[in-house]
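Handoff note, outgoing to incoming analyst
You'll be picking up this chain. Sequence as last confirmed:
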Amino acid sequence: MAGANAYAGGFIGNDLVLPKRQPKQPTVEVEEPQLLKIETTAQARPFAQPIIKPKSRISRLFSLRTAGLFVAMLLSSYLLLSTIAVVNHSNALASLSSATASLQQRVSDNLHHQPAYVSLPAYSVAVENSHLKNDISNIKEQSVVINFSFASTSPSSAQLSGWITTSAGPKAGTTLLSVNTVAVTKYLTSMVRLYDQSSSNEVIANLANGTSQVISNGSNGITYSGVSKASKQLVTQLLTANGVNVSLVGTIVPYKTIVTNKP
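Most recent structure output, in case you need it:
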């Protein structure tokens, strides 16, 4: 009992004995786990369904009117574009017609104010009558040279004059000068025949004594071609009065050797 009182405190005799203090125990605060609360509903909320209301008569009429207006706009646009295309085509034709008229007027002015030749049909030119005599003189007095392989020749002024024909011009006060292509071709063909040379055969004779003797010497020939090309060049350039120089192609024809026996 004395031990118990001493532990609890009290009086021992006349002395006051204080009770012993219990050592203070550290306190540990433990947080209680918080549970995640998930609220659930008894049933899932259904998705919202679109509400389709039937179109009223007024709405249908409005839709038809809108479609009609759209079609009308398309037709109007098409008609507008077609009109623009027709107008542009008409303007283009008018411009072309104006340009053609302007070109014809310039040609006419040149014909009246200049002695220049105006291109017409092949191998033909139109000149003013006031310049006709001088132009024909220039044509027949120009230099025209026909070249062969080993020679050349020139037609006379009279021959050149014979190649030119005259007829009424395309408008009043003009004359059409043309080249007689048949006459030019005929002249060139005659020159080819004149300058063509036949080859001459070489003849060798074997004599009875075993020797040989040249009876005649051989010589090469030459033949010319290209008359058609030369004729076209000549008639194309003749009316310019600037001179013409054409060439014919010559081909060598080699001679042959002939051997005979002579008693």
